[in-house]
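Could someone model 4'-phosphopantetheine with this protein?
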Amino acid sequence: MATAVFPGSFDPVTLGHMDLIKRASGMFDKLIIGVLVNSSKQPLCTIEERICILEELTKNIPSIEVMSFDGLLVDFVHQTGADTVIRGIRNSADFEYELPLAQANYKLNNKADTLFLATLPEYSYISSSAVKELIRYKGDIKEFVPDVVCKFIMQKCNY
Ligand code: PNS
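Reply:
Sure, complex below.
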């Protein structure tokens, strides 16, 4: 069974993440969304909230499983038995950053390759950090995140 891991902080989940998740899920028998625990000292959403939101957003895609992981990505990939890691590339800066990580990860676990998916141009300016910055100043995040995330943030952050 071809299994891929889509790892990330997902703090919060963006429209760019959702596009990649939907496209990647069509390419593999199983897609595991791996949510990194402790990705930031002051996360916007707790690990439980991120998992709950991702489960809600992917409830109609049976081949998707949402899991948390702590520590090295290669160890998580090994534990799940996956043979591919999915990463999205928005621009050349992403590629510069992701390439050595993918190479290091392959060196550590040559049973899993990293597959880069090009982000759709309409989502290429979106990042979780930009969303967090907008939230800090109560900016409009409707064009950046799925409705479920938007509603959750509005409640949590008293918009
Ligand atoms: O959504 P993000 O924050 O860009 O995701 C980054 C993530 C989770 C993929 C990356 O930080 C990661 O793999 N962290 C686990 C630790 C690890 O394996 N680091 C790479 C060492 S070569």
